[in-house]
Amino acid sequence: MEERPVDEFDYGRAVYEPLTQSVRQLIDATIRTEVGEDTVAKVQALVDEGARLLSERLVPESFGVQYTRDGRGMPWGNAIIGLRNPIAPPLVIERNRDGSVWCDVELGAAYEGPPGCLHGGISALILDQLLGATAHRPAQPAFTGTLTVRYQRPTRLGRVHGEARVVRHDGVKTYAVGHLENGEGIMVVAEGVFVRPAGRA
Ligand SMILES: CCCCCCCC(=O)SCCNC(=O)CCNC(=O)[C@H](O)C(C)(C)COP(=O)(O)OP(=O)(O)OC[C@H]1O[C@@H](n2cnc3c(N)ncnc32)[C@H](O)[C@@H]1OP(=O)(O)O
What we know:
Blueprint: H1 8-32, H2 37-54, E1 66-67, E2 73-74, E3 94-95, E4 101-107, H3 120-135, E5 143-151, E6 158-170, E7 173-182, E8 185-195
Antiparallel strand pairs: 1-2, 3-4, 4-6, 5-8, 6-7, 7-8
Bound molecules: octanoyl-coenzyme A.
């Protein structure tokens, strides 16, 4: 095993983020391409070769949350915020001083449900992460216990803004609300109960 450089976070980001971004472009092009079958076969061979090379050394199972020596978390396989996960948009969550959170994210062809619109499961995924992030306390992770999502209107693919905030705490439970909106208004609203498992609250 190679020794990790001191600034593992920045090093890892510099090495893997461009690859992830390229694969995101590949996913989009795979969905939307109209090239002929010869080109498709050629690209498939290239992709297979890329997968073979990357697979020469893999972590045994999923990525999990790896930590730098100075304790910085790298949840880089995460389905929605993962820096090394091409199926993650990725969501970049910003935090306000009051603990509420927000994000702006561009969602294209890979996240389609109804034609031209965001898949409802993707909306729920974004809201789960946003509400979870505002409920989160350092060293006291809160798991989603219940997430209720109300789809008010179909959300067009494209730029989406999300927000979430805590409304109250009750022992190990934190109640949070949030929504997704775009230029057409508020499209999806959610409320969630986040529970800190016994012994960790
Ligand atoms: C920055 C981080 C962002 C993270 C965002 C992403 C979050 C996720 O996606 S997490 C993954 C999805 N969630 C899960 O896998 C959770 C699976 N469930 C569990 O692990 C457990 O059932 C868990 C942790 C929710 C509760 O377990 P446990 O600690 O044993 O709860 P328990 O002691 O029975 O109950 C504690 C309290 O919570 C309540 N509660 C328990 N489960 C739930 C639930 N599912 N929904 C609502 N309330 C619940 C109980 O009623 C009880 O309330 P009270 O104190 O008023 O009596």
